[in-house]
Design goal:
- With about 210 residues, the chain is mostly beta strands.
- It contains no helices and 19 strands.
- The protein is about 0% helix and about 65% strand.
- The chain has a ten-stranded mixed β-sheet with strand order 2-4-6-8-10-12-14-16-18-19, with no helix packed on it. A nine-stranded parallel β-sheet has the order 1-3-5-7-9-11-13-15-17, with no helix packed on it.
């Protein structure tokens, strides 16, 4: 932990917890693996990691800065990117499907995920999203692939624009607020929701 300065490492492996924190500075490492929990907190700075895995939970929080993680894999995953930019990206986010309040929680101005994936459970995967703060919309939410054999539920989707593609399982969004437009699709159906009259783009449109 440091008040100011960068934290850099190659590989972190703990029989208990991994905990890293800086008020101002970047945190970067190749891999972090913990038997229990991984906690990373940055006041102002960037987070760069190839792989973060844990048997229990992963929690990363940045107040201002970008987050780039190749793999986040744990029983429960929370990644809050705060006041980030479109340079942030998450490769694969994988968590247990429990049907609880939140199996995966993601926050930020820009939430871009390659794959959202359920593991170790046939229950519904619950994915919660928010903007830079809980009471704020995201600028964009993009999930290139959502895969959960027991189905996926998003309690709310509040964003300016977005695109969510489901590759496995049913998908349900309880509340959708699109300030511009958002598209939901799988290999059979594509549906767009617009906050204003849409221009014809040769895709299926619903209001």
């Amino acid at each position: 932990q440091t008040d100011s300065g960068n934290i850099m490492a190659s590989s972190l492996n703990a029989a208990g917890n991994v905990s890293l924190a800086t008020k101002q500075g970047d945190i970067s490492f190749a891999t972090a693996k913990a038997k229990n929990d991984v906690t990373i907190q940055i006041g102002s700075g960037n987070l760069q990691a190839d792989s973060i895995t844990s048997n229990r939970s992963i929690l990363t929080e940045t107040g201002k800065g970008d987050t780039n993680i190749g793999l986040a894999d744990a029983a429960n995953v929370s990644i809050f990117m705060g006041d980030n930019t479109s340079n942030s990206s998450l490769g694969t986010v994988r968590a247990n499907a429990t049907g609880g309040v939140s199996d995966i929680a993601l926050g930020g101005n820009y939430i871009s995920v390659g794959t959202v994936n359920a593991k170790n459970g046939e229950a519904v995967l619950v994915v919660f999203t928010q903007g830079a703060t809980r009471g704020q919309a995201s600028d964009d939410i993009t999930f290139n692939s959502v895969s959960a054999s027991g189905g996926t539920v998003m309690p709310q989707v509040w964003t300016n624009t977005g695109s969510i593609y489901v590759t496995e399982g049913n998908f349900h969004a309880s509340k959708v607020y699109a300030l511009d437009s958002i598209r939901f699709a799988n290999d059979k159906v594509s549906i767009a929701q617009y906050a204003k009259p849409a221009n014809f783009d040769r895709n299926v449109i619903s209001y």
